[in-house]
Structures are given as structure tokens and as C-alpha cells.
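USER: I would love a firmer grasp of how sequence relates to backbone shape in proteins. This is the protein in question:
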Amino acid sequence: MAAKDERRFKTVAENRKARFNYLIGETFEAGIVLTGSEVKSLRTGKATIAESYADAKGGEIWLVNANIPEYIQAHRENHAPKRLRKLLLHERQIHKLANAVEREGMTIVPLKLYFNERGRAKIEIALAKGKKLHDKRETDKKRSWDRERGRLMREKG
């Protein structure tokens, strides 16, 4: 039997550039309201969340600009690929995210879209602050030094 910490899930889409472009703060796991054709399309693994973000409107959090392509077999019952999608969070979490965006100028960035162990579509979002160009260069230098240090350690034995 697997340990409780070990989660089994299928990753559908990941936003790799988010950790490079933003300083990631607190992360949240949210449910996402989808139609049937969207779920079927996600199961094929073709979604992208690279250019997307979340926004607080009317006491709710909405996922904006996430691309879930149309499911070919759905015909006329299909969905719009880049429609707004509601995220399901606790009220306390919604207030926390909305206040951080309004007062502190932070952004809500999606990090990963996946199916959890129960087969439910979930999205991992994070409060993030945009990095400046010099911060990105510093991150790049640190990453390359870590790689070089790993090579040197392997060579020494």
C-alpha cells in the first residue's frame, strides 16, 4: 500500500515557465468546473496552461486563457477552447487570493493541471510576484552553476 504523502495522479499540463518568470509564493489546489467534452479532451492530454492566469471576479476565481482543445467526437456539443472556467476553492482561500491580487499586486498563476487519484480534474495555482530581468538572469546563473557543480562532483567521485 502506498504512503499517504505519495499521490498518484496523471499530469495533463504543466506551466514550466511560471517558476522562471515568477517568484512563487503560496500554492493552492483547486477544482475546476468543466463540461463533458472538456474532460474527454483533457484525458487525451492536449491542454495548455502556459499563457493562462486566474482572476478574481464577483467573489469567485476564474481561469482565463487556458486552452483545452475541442473534442472531435463531441460534434455540436463541443466547448469553446479558451472560455472562462470557474475554479472551486474554499471561501477563505478565495478572499485570500483576491486580497493579494488587489492590495499586493500579485498574480494568480496556474502551475499544473492534473487528474487526482479519484479521477477529478484539479489545478494547482499559486500566488506569484513577477520577476524583473535581473532576477531571471540570477536564476539562470544559479541553475547553470548547479549543473556545473554536479558535473564536477561526479568527476571527482
In short: The first helix runs from residue 18 to 21. The radius of gyration is 18 Å.
